[in-house]
Amino acid sequence: MTTNVYFVRHAHSIYTPDEMGRPLSEKGFADSAGVADVLAREKIDVFISSPYLRAVQTIQGAADQFGKGIILIDGFKERKLSEKPVESFDNAIEKVWQDWKFSWEGGESNLAAQERGVKVLREVLEEYEGKNIVVGTHGNIMVLIMNYFERTCDFDFWKKLEMPDIYRLSFDGERFVKAERIMA
After folding, report:
1. At what angle do helices 26-40 and 53-66 cross, to 10 degrees?
2. DSSP conformation class of 80
3. Could you give the residue ranges of the DSSP H alpha helices within 18-138?
4. Are strands 165-172 and 2-9 parallel, antiparallel or unpaired?
5. Of all helices (H) and strands (E), which one includes residue 144?
6. CA 117 – CA 50 distance, rounded (Å)
7. Separation of alpha carbons 142 and 111, rounded Å
C-alpha cells in the first residue's frame, strides 16, 4: 500500500527573530496560492505542519480547499542552527553539512536533526499508512530527512530549493520507493 508524503518547504517569509511567529511576506502569501493549486490536483487525506507560522501559512490555503485542519507536529520544525546569531549564516550552514556530528553552541548537528525528523516521519507513515499526507516544513530539515532515504539530497540539493517547493516521497510501508519534485 503506497503512502505519499508531500513535503512543502515554506514560502518566503518576513525575517524576524521570532522563529515561531515569523509570517509569510506578501510574495510568500501569493506563492502559497500556487501551493494550493498544485496540491488541489492530488487527493490529500491529511495536513501536518511544523508549528512555525510560515510553514502553517504556506499550506493553509490547500488545507482549506480540502476542508481539513492542520495537525501541528514539533518534529517537523526547522533545525536549530545556533543558540546565538552566527557571524555568517552561509559559513555556519556549510560547516554543519561538512561535519554531520558538529553543532554550533545550542544548535543541532545534521545527524541529530535528521534523526529527529526521520523518527517523526516514521511515526506519520505508521499512523497514516496508505494516505496522501502534506507536511508543511522547512528547507534544512526537509532535505535532512530526504537525505536519509536518497543520498543525492545533500547540501548542493538544499541550495537549489525554491521557496516554496514541493517534493512527493512515496513509501511502501516504511520502505522508500521514490522522490519527485511536483512544483516548479
Report:
1. 40
2. P
3. 26-40, 53-66, 89-98, 110-127
4. antiparallel
5. helix 139-149
6. 11
7. 13
3-state secondary structure of 2: strand
List of long-range contacts for 29-34, beta carbons under 8 Å, 24+ apart: 29/57, 31/58, 31/163, 31/164, 32/57, 32/58, 32/59, 32/60, 32/61, 32/164, 33/61, 34/164, 34/183
pTM over 0.70: yes
Q: Are 12 and 25 in contact (CB under 8 A)?
A: yes
Low-confidence ranges of the chain (pLDDT < 50): none
pLDDT tens for residues 115-128? 999 999 999 999 99
Q: How many residues does the chain have?
A: 184
Cell numbers found for residue 136: 508543511
Nine-digit cell string for 137: 516544513
